[in-house]
Design brief:
Shape: elongated
Bound molecules: adenosine-5'-diphosphate, magnesium ion
Strand order of the largest sheet: 5-4-3-6-2-1-7-8
Number of strands: 24
Number of helices: 20
Radius of gyration: 28 Å
Helix content: 25-40%
Largest sheet: 8 strands, mixed
Structural class: alpha+beta
């Protein structure tokens, strides 16, 4: 008895909408794309209730005539392509000609626009695909879209949206990506009338610094100008890596993509040059430009992924270009500086190149950090690590450690009666802070700070679920998580830390935890490691002589003085007789 019938166009538009419009952020993405394509130099995005109640995008672009304003919401209405060939080389963002049709089919939609050649603007209103009246309206040159009650006719979609904070985080990310790709365009983002982003027109460098929340001096410029592939952008100084992957931006021909392999290429670059601790990730903005024919941006309906025709080449170019950038900025000179006479600094987090063959770096992993608190384990641990007995006999200073000076803003040189000491300034300070915290750990977790309102972080659904699952353990170390996964209190030592970052950390720690009977200890140690690292003097910071002398004085009283809490050595001692021997004395 089934009768074939053709779906009304509103319904087929709503089905098509499923492809394009997944959530408020996808609406914002389409509208901002259009604004930029229309030559806007200033774009303002407003959302209310995470975009459920209102999404508004206002631009000062060229606007539309009243005829175009009516046409643009029809499916396959576009001014950007006219033949199938155009699809393969189109340089503008949108080209399907269906975004506005899709959006207006699943919302209460309003468009006000005016082009510069006419005095009056046009207002078009559509309610879930049904056109209401079109009228003339006062308007500035440019276009405003207002989307109210998104997903009104598709309650299942609506039910899939996350809380307002999370949705608004997605929106922000879209805007930031456009902001990076178009530094000369100003952007504003208001959430519930509160200003979240305000980005004045700038340069790629200034925009990057703003989005990564870093000073320009802490960024190393990446530049590869190959024939087929150009890579430009910025990576952060090694000391400024963070526990979260949120600050990693990849743009391909101006579009944000997510590509874990390319992100890994960047991390690999740090591992092969400056070194990076196991739990940290570089912050970066990399913009790849290549012939549109060599990259298929349409493999994913929302275009977050791309397919390169030569992915391996792109990966290597990214890695090598970032290595070059790090070397330049650290002025280390070319490939991997390892000193053969140095005790090999190779615990959990650093890497060394095997031989001179230029082959793959060798990775020597240990569970160093896990055993750090048992002094008797240190010997066993070190020898297991590199089979190097000498390293076990780490000397203690004889007499007073006297400062010689700072080297390259990274190392502290000192001497005592028996030789010369070199310290990794960050690792040294970190170790001392860690010990200080560790000695009063019980009181540190007992003192907590109640947040004024529970803090909901921009976590994915399953990250939130993991937090909730471990709420009891986390409560024992001072983090109270409510049934919705919002944080209600933090231990006082975290009261001035960036809360979203700390929460992201918690999730990562849960991931890395053998959560069982030692879970509380695990979290405690991770927390204190984090706090001792954040706030310690950075590798790359200039230090005053008094500060350095203070660290040297403390060194003598530091109990676990050999490694930083993550397991890297923090000093290197050269006895005078070894020095003499070098000079045949
Ligand atoms: P597409 O961007 O793929 O062409 P859309 O449905 O997103 O399809 O937009 C349809 C058309 O509406 C565009 O081709 C453009 O001509 C016009 N348009 C959309 N947004 C704007 C805007 N902000 N300013 C000027 N014209 C616009
Ligand atoms: Mg478009």
């Amino acid at each position: 008895m089934n009768q074939i019938h053709v779906l009304p166009s509103e319904v087929s538009d709503q089905i098509a909408a499923g492809e394009v419009v997944e959530r408020p952020a996808s609406v914002v993405k389409e509208l901002v794309e259009n604004a930029i394509d229309a030559g806007a130099t200033h774009v303002v995005v407003r959302i209310v209730d995470g975009g459920r109640e209102l999404i508004e995008v206002q631009d000062n672009g060229r606007g539309m005539s009243s005829v175009d304003a009516e046409l643009c919401v029809q499916r396959h209405a576009t001014s950007k392509i006219s033949s199938i060939d155009d699809l393969f080389s189109v340089q503008t963002f949108g080209f399907r000609g269906e975004a506005l049709a899709a959006i207006s089919s699943v919302s209460e939609f309003e468009l006000i626009t005016r082009s510069s050649d006419v005095d009056a603007g046009t207002r078009v209103q559509i309610d879930c695909g049904k056109k209401l009246e079109t009228e003339s309206a006062a308007a500035n040159v440019g276009t405003i879209f207002r989307i109210r009650n998104l997903f009104k006719p598709t309650p299942v979609r609506l039910a899939h949206l996350k809380n307002a904070g999370t949705e608004s985080g997605y929106v922000k990310k879209e805007i930031e990506a456009f902001a990076l790709a178009h530094p000369s365009v100003g952007f504003e983002f208001l959430r519930d009338e509160k200003n979240v982003l305000q980005l004045a027109p700038g340069t790629f460098a200034s925009r990057t610094a703003e989005i990564l929340n870093e000073k320009i001096e802490q960024l190393a410029e990446v530049e590869h100008l190959g024939q087929e592939l150009k890579i430009t952008g910025w990576v952060v100084a090694p000391g400024h890596c963070t526990p979260s992957r949120k600050h990693q931006w990849l743009l391909v021909n101006g579009r944000r993509i997510e590509d874990s392999k390319l992100a890994w290429a960047v991390r690999e670059a740090y591992q092969q040059s400056a070194g990076i601790e196991k739990h940290l990730h570089p912050k970066f903005v990399l913009s790849l430009t290549l012939d549109p024919l060599l990259v298929d941006v349409n493999v994913h309906p929302r275009k977050l992924e791309v397919k390169f025709s030569e992915p391996g080449d792109v990966w290597k170019s990214v890695r090598d270009t970032v290595i070059a950038a790090l070397h330049r900025s650290l002025s280390i000179g070319s490939p991997v500086a390892t000193f053969s006479h140095m005790p090999s600094p190779t615990p959990a987090c650093s890497y060394s190149r095997s031989g001179g063959s230029g082959g793959a770096p060798s990775v020597r992993a240990t569970n160093a950090a896990a055993s750090l608190f048992a002094p008797k384990n240190f010997a066993a641990l070190s020898s297991a690590r590199d089979g190097n007995i000498e390293e076990l006999e780490r000397p203690t200073p004889t007499g007073e450690l006297r400062l010689i000076g700072q080297i390259a803003q990274r190392y502290i040189a000192a001497q005592d009666e028996s030789g010369v000491w070199m310290f990794d300034q960050h690792a040294l300070h970190e170790r001392q802070r860690f010990e200080e915290f560790w000695n009063k750990r019980d009181e540190l977790v007992r003192e907590r700070q109640q947040l004024l309102t529970p803090h909901q972080s921009n976590l994915s659904e399953d990250e939130t679920a993991r937090l909730i699952e471990h709420a009891e353990t986390l409560a024992a170390v001072g983090f109270e998580i409510n049934v919705e996964g919002a944080v209600e209190s933090v231990p006082s030592i975290f009261s001035s830390s960036p809360i979203d970052e700390v929460i992201q950390q918690l999730v990562d720690w849960i991931d890395g935890a053998q959560v069982g009977e030692h879970a509380v200890d695990h979290f405690l140690r991770k927390m204190l490691e984090y706090r001792s690292c954040r706030g310690a003097v950075m590798f790359g910071d200039r230090m005053e002589p008094e500060e350095m002398q203070r660290l040297l004085d403390d060194f003598g009283t530091t109990q676990w003085r050999n490694l930083c809490p993550h397991g890297r050595p923090n000093h290197w001692f050269i006895p005078f007789d070894e020095l003499d021997a070098k000079f045949h004395r």
